[in-house]
Amino acid sequence: MSDENNSGAAAPEAQNPGQNAAQPAVRLQILTQYIRDLSFENAVAQKGLPSGEVQPEISVQVSLDARKRPAEHQYEVISKFRVQSSNATDKSPLFLCELDYGGIFHVEGVPEDQLHPFLMIECPRMMFPFVRRIVSDMTRDGGFPPFNMDPVDFVALYRQEIARRTQAQRPADQPLS
After folding, report:
1. Fewest beta carbons within 10 Å, which of 22, 95, 124, 137?
2. Cβ–Cβ contacts within 10 Å for residue 139, how many?
3. 126 falls within a domain
4. How many domains does the chain have?
5. Regions of the chain where pLDDT drops below 70
């Protein structure tokens, strides 16, 4: 018999045998996923083909947001991706793809102090393969080779955001350590 529940997470007693066995198991269910906003701009088609050699440089920016929904145990998570490509030789824009992708999740059994990181790491991680496919399809349909995004480290992204917020709250005259 397996120590995993339907969501693939190990049962609490398997994770920490010394913990209280009465702690509820984590339950995560994707209720729906959707494109909230999508934009693709092909600068090459608008301005004409660039002269000389084209060496694309691609940058990807990711931001996340989560909020509680009125229904019990339901949360909406929005991941925003901005994929911008420019010519490395003259910095002229090639394309811009912006995607806001959302999901509504049913989450139970996550302690309150761990809920925010859970929503900002695990939920976007589950949605990422769909985001990656949409961006790949959009770049291909926009007249460019398909762009397959590298996996995003949502743990590192979360830590960076927490560090940024902590830094923003620190008074300007207070030393860093």
Report:
1. 22
2. 23
3. yes
4. 1
5. 1-23, 48-52, 171-177
